[in-house]
Amino acid sequence: xxQIENVLAQRYASEKMKEIxxxxxxxxxxxxxxxxxxxxxxxxxxPIDDDVIPxxxxxxxxxxxxxxxxREKITRHDVKSxxxxxxxxxxxxxxxxxxxxxxxxxxxxxxxxxxALELTRSKAVAALVKLAEKADFYRHRIITARTHNVAxxxxxxxxxxxxxxxxxxxxxxNLDRVIANYPVRGIKGAVGTQLDQLTxxxxxxxxxxxxxxKIVGHLGIGRSLNxxxxxxxxxxxxxxxxxxxxxxxxxxxFAKTLRIMAGNETASEGFAKGQVGSxxxxxxxxxxxxxxxxxxxxxxxxxxxxxxxxxxxxWNEGDxxxxxxxxxxxxxxxxxxxxxxxxxxxxxxxMTIFPAVIERENTHYFPFLSSTTIxxxxxxxxxxxxxxxxxxxxxxxxxxxxLRNGVIDSNDLLDRLAADDRLGLTMDELKQILSRGEExxxxxxxxxxxxxxxxxxWKTAYPEAAGYDPGNIL
Amino acid sequence: xxQIENVLAQRYASEKMKEIxxxxxxxxxxxxxxxxxxxxxxxxxxPIDDDVIPxxxxxxxxxxxxxxxxREKITRHDVKSxxxxxxxxxxxxxxxxxxxxxxxxxxxxxxxxxxALELTRSKAVAALVKLAEKADFYRHRIITARTHNVAxxxxxxxxxxxxxxxxxxxxxxNLDRVIANYPVRGIKGAVGTQLDQLTxxxxxxxxxxxxxxKIVGHLGIGRSLNxxxxxxxxxxxxxxxxxxxxxxxxxxxFAKTLRIMAGNETASEGFAKGQVGSxxxxxxxxxxxxxxxxxxxxxxxxxxxxxxxxxxxxWNEGDxxxxxxxxxxxxxxxxxxxxxxxxxxxxxxxMTIFPAVIERENTHYFPFLSSTTIxxxxxxxxxxxxxxxxxxxxxxxxxxxxLRNGVIDSNDLLDRLAADDRLGLTMDELKQILSRGEExxxxxxxxxxxxxxxxxxWKTAYPEAAGYDPGNIL
Amino acid sequence: xxQIENVLAQRYASEKMKEIxxxxxxxxxxxxxxxxxxxxxxxxxxPIDDDVIPxxxxxxxxxxxxxxxxREKITRHDVKSxxxxxxxxxxxxxxxxxxxxxxxxxxxxxxxxxxALELTRSKAVAALVKLAEKADFYRHRIITARTHNVAxxxxxxxxxxxxxxxxxxxxxxNLDRVIANYPVRGIKGAVGTQLDQLTxxxxxxxxxxxxxxKIVGHLGIGRSLNxxxxxxxxxxxxxxxxxxxxxxxxxxxFAKTLRIMAGNETASEGFAKGQVGSxxxxxxxxxxxxxxxxxxxxxxxxxxxxxxxxxxxxWNEGDxxxxxxxxxxxxxxxxxxxxxxxxxxxxxxxMTIFPAVIERENTHYFPFLSSTTIxxxxxxxxxxxxxxxxxxxxxxxxxxxxLRNGVIDSNDLLDRLAADDRLGLTMDELKQILSRGEExxxxxxxxxxxxxxxxxxWKTAYPEAAGYDPGNIL
Amino acid sequence: xxQIENVLAQRYASEKMKEIxxxxxxxxxxxxxxxxxxxxxxxxxxPIDDDVIPxxxxxxxxxxxxxxxxREKITRHDVKSxxxxxxxxxxxxxxxxxxxxxxxxxxxxxxxxxxALELTRSKAVAALVKLAEKADFYRHRIITARTHNVAxxxxxxxxxxxxxxxxxxxxxxNLDRVIANYPVRGIKGAVGTQLDQLTxxxxxxxxxxxxxxKIVGHLGIGRSLNxxxxxxxxxxxxxxxxxxxxxxxxxxxFAKTLRIMAGNETASEGFAKGQVGSxxxxxxxxxxxxxxxxxxxxxxxxxxxxxxxxxxxxWNEGDxxxxxxxxxxxxxxxxxxxxxxxxxxxxxxxMTIFPAVIERENTHYFPFLSSTTIxxxxxxxxxxxxxxxxxxxxxxxxxxxxLRNGVIDSNDLLDRLAADDRLGLTMDELKQILSRGEExxxxxxxxxxxxxxxxxxWKTAYPEAAGYDPGNIL
Lengths: 474, 474, 474, 474
Description:
4 copies of one chain form a homotetramer.
Chain A: H1 7-12, H2 15-21, H3 23-43, H4 52-59, H5 65-75, H6 78-90, H7 101-137, E1 142-147, E2 150-156, H8 157-180, E3 183-184, H9 195-200, H10 205-219, E4 223-224, H11 235-264, E5 267-268, H12 288-308, H13 323-350, E6 352-353, H14 355-369, H15 371-380, H16 385-404, H17 413-418, H18 427-435, H19 437-440, H20 444-461, H21 463-466
Parallel strand pairs in A: 3-4
Antiparallel strand pairs in A: 1-2, 5-6
Helix pairs in contact in A: 2-3, 2-7, 3-7, 3-10, 4-6, 5-6, 7-8, 7-13, 7-20, 8-11, 8-20, 11-12, 11-13, 12-13, 15-16
């Protein structure tokens, strides 16, 4: 029967992410680990000839999955078959000394997690930088801010984008800390006591300690754990997937808001180049990609719940009720976050706004939103405060009433206010108050600047990531 | 009708945690915020007389809930009634200037979270230090390590405790980073543009920026957010509750393992002083507290799932679909983690072990677990490797068979081996091999030392926390 | 220190729901169970004088919590103190014979669940009936249906309401099945073997079987379980809370859609009588209650996740890692669903629509949505199909373009089409096509009828529930 | 790059389950739907020649995935390419009339769910029947029942198995109701108003209603929904996955308990034929499959959480934020439950018990568990009740103390009691009391009978399912 494919990987994830979690990718990381252990063992005095490590390094990338499968049919042992394959390719027999299966699998899975975290960070940086560009680009575009989905005060689109960028920034900072503090289990033996490595080094615990340090150094991971059992604590997986979930929160909120804006026709996630809307419904630009971003966010919460079930459920030195769960939840979480960023970056690249519609919305709401300012100006011109308040309230309520009941088609509050002697304001004066939109958006621009400065730091730190362009999405 | 109480708070949480989240506690934090804002505003040149702030500070702790309720009946506005109460007590009218309701509520709720995080950290430090003491105390107690719940290799109880302590340590380090990087929303106005504070300072954005810095300084929180909407990003709540969940993972794994050990009668969570077991079932020491620790862990995952539903669901500048959720999930998460630590600390204080039963278990399993060493010794004495391997395997399989089928009552593998000429080992020699238990536990002791050193750092940093003793639990 | 209240119960739930889960309510159910057991035991020949049961029944409602607490201080046993209280009130000593603590607590908690399910069903029926009324009321109100939040085809508001009603209907049918099939654990003894009841009836297993049947009959629950351990299977709790979550889904989707409609000003959740909008922002009718409905939905998912952690985690004949979880999740789930329905019913009572705004929306979109029909009419009048298609597409795309770019302020597609000779349609003919809105909504009205018929069945079955009016909500 | 496979499908699920969800399987169900619609349309008078439907039916199974892909490259539309392929194979052009894409995809996905539910039911029946066989087989095997993982009372292994079977039985009954009441969306058009079908039948709503009834009849599903939007309510997916989660709860509890029993060596999940334990550790029979059952249970909870995020989140007539989530969660849930049953059935087939170890456990605990009976016998022989109670308590506490402190190696309580004049019982009399084990297990056997009777009903209803044997698992 046909092979059932992993939908998240095949439809949404990038090649790089698939490489990390693919059978081939895993074998490469296993070989990296074996080589790192060999180097450390040699450094610490185990008799390993100088040509051994280069021999393995030379064939590191020669991965023949079929050959390994053929070996497994004979040995009936997957780790063994990989050892044999690698050794035969290298023409040496030195790897896996003093190691148990878990010494290989735990650390390699952690390497996969670590590499995938790094790749994810680079995507997050790309998204952050893109958000900063957009925030800058739209910094003067005044829009009607909404709370409870109802018009509240003016703001700018740039500020709104910076707001969602701020959420991503927090999550990225956290991700960076997760990476910086990520500890590998290390070479600890069957129950975590390092018995086999100690035996290899004749009980010299100092050397065993050094061995660990050297291995993590070779692998490029910052630290290793001290007291573990057969496995590393599964709450670490929860910690990782939780960081991914946090990471998709800002984009998810952005996507929801863009879906709402599309419903008001103030903005759209846009189309791919060359794509056109339905001829029957030329107005119908569906927010399919934004909906997908929201979908990935839910998916991540599902995987988070899976690994949550593993945390705090270690029996004694460990069991493998986690095995099938991690086999699914770890790669699939990373495929999901990767697909999320591919989609989100595409949305950022293609989103468009409709300034005329935005203007219409502003014109509709700003007379209401400016009523406090209008009152203050009326008072300045000599009106009594209570009188002015009462007059404005009367007219505003009546205007809303008439708009909603079809008596009028557009907001004529200014006309009504200009015609009311109690306020003493002319139409010109009223229009001028409303035209001071830039003042009404407060620190919006300064916040965009501050956000851009933060994004710039990340761009500087990861210049290559910042320039990443997403692949073509479905 | 009688008031329905919050079970988590009333049955399990400590007074200090309840104080933070109680109506009274919340009012105190509101007042702290108002005073912090006043101080910042005064520093920045707003005309506030020197006696104003002291007047408020003096009455900060005078909380009369009934009086506030009475005011609310008249004003129909909860925040307003609290402003009036505080002002009347102080005999001043200066607080809440340029602030909207969210400027108060968001920041105060974050202060509650922050204080609760600090309190939780102190409990976690206490637990860590206690685990280190226990790990040290049991460092020489050799036990049978289990993987898949089946005997695997020797280890020590001290090492096993350090292993769970290691998981707690990771979570505590993470919690500490969460606290260190926790940002408050700050005084940002209705849609996050700081319009009202800017108006107060006549458009001087530099002063508004300084205002924020000063407030967070007064409050003792490290940083404030830049671009926000009506609310701070709700993924921050997820970040916090996720850290709590991670924090309960090590204790939860410990508790599960102790429940399993109790089933084998190798250990028990103990009894409170004076308590005795059932006379009808004197052997029945139920692991009720350990079960409860596991229960709290599940509860935290439920609250995590609640706040997960808020993250990534911000519409525009914010809505309040989060309101009822946060009202429940935030305090209740902290009551749960607090109850968890109270229970866990009690378990650590009262746990007992049964050395004789542990010895019986070791005696039962160690002959099997030592078979590799026995083989090596036989080879040293001249036996062929394959011959020795075959002989040992034969006897081991037969011994297990006879034990499980009732042919024998205790493990007699050594007798069988001593009687087999192929191995050439006497009973004395075999017994000597098994008696070298300390060697078989590898780096167990060194790992306990390393764990203790880590715990010591936290004890030094938080000496008061380290000495905390839990209250009496139900 | 002040008692911390249960927020869900005290702020949102109804008195009836609180009564079920309150300490007093629990004691009443305990007494119901004891009396049911007594009756069954007497029926089956145990020597219980005729005046015994009436004596207990007479004092069933006399609940003195303080007196029970005082007893507990002496006995140190909560169940015992309640037995004594009830016996002293009745002047008899016959209850709890052959029962263990779990025989009481498991069944009483199930009774609480059962009563709460029934109460919830009545609220769901009330909501269903109200939805049917609203669907009928708005059956001719043509609105612009949206998919992807973008205008798609005409429908009616009545049909939209019926659509959400359909979802509630499915959930209500399921809830009804959950209630109909809900099994109680029964009187099964410490490990589920009924040892104590068997002893009481001298080993007569037939009588023990009858005893169970009689008890469930007295209690009004349909069935009891056969083989259980100390506890009933915890997946049953998951089954129950899952049904509650499904139940809140229709209301939650309705609430989200109303929040979106409020953003377009086509509808509003309305205000309580006497309440007025902000004078500064008279247009600002926040969807606070709808947001709250969405919040309750998330809360229920959190509790579902808690009880999910209990299902499938029974060790042997049972443990109590479930204890603290169920103490929180069971009552709080029911408070949440109850608060959800109170809020939802209020929204249904108070919601208003703005026909003029709806009309403006229809006018804006219907020319696009009718393009297929227009083409068909043009063809009828003699235009070539491809020519007509091309002409309409040209004008539609241009119209959308001009609207979004501010060239025009309102949809003038009809003008453009009327002016295009290729189509041969006059403005009158075009207007007539658009005026046939009722035809364009297809089976909307028939679906409303069908939905109303279903709701009517429930109204007939539960006439009292159907007339329920919610209490005042915050 | 190599294709990433779906781990759940490829490693754990059965061929039948993969067939349902495979690209090929989906195409077959699409064709079934198209044919069902054709039949209904013909029945209702649409002009469809008699040879049309047979022409389609004849080629229904001719699925050429490559050919469809090639078409898609040209049409750029997946549904269209499948229509063309099917039509060309049949040599007719009649399918998909009056249908929109969602009319196809929603219903086909529901058909997949429905078929998968049926397949799952058959596996559940197989497991239930196997549990009944095992319960019968072990009905006389007396074991020590445990609560809190501590010995509590005697029971039988048969009863324990029936207890977990009872949980599965409840879940199976529920699943059966889910299937019986499962409604399909039906042919409802783009926004659910059936506009296109009504047009096809010239506005004859009666015929459109009949059409739906006929289609569901042809498909074998019981009912269709009335008022829907673009999509069916997503809470229905939650309802389905929730039933799967409930279904895995009994097996999961069974698996946990077997893992605990394996730790005590009273039972084992066994080995596959031919497989042998490690020679170095012949006692080490890891509960890998039981752990996997527990893992699948967690996985299902993760998918449940994903679909929970879709329920109650429908905007207007529908959006597709659900799309990517359902693409993952629906098939993968069914792969998981399928893999769970394959594994669980294997465990049931291969599990073994160790009677001698069970006996040793009973001998160790029964003297304690029987103390109440012993007291009653002593009283019968003339001892004072209080005196007897005191004597037994003294000896029991002392025995436990001596056992746990290594003073004695086996439970000698009977010796102590026989030697105490206060009781007046001889060793023979005491032994006789303990030998009445069958009495001490109460209604265990009757409960096994009752459980078997229930299982028999399902076996009769689904004889083929009952005989199912799992495939070879990894």
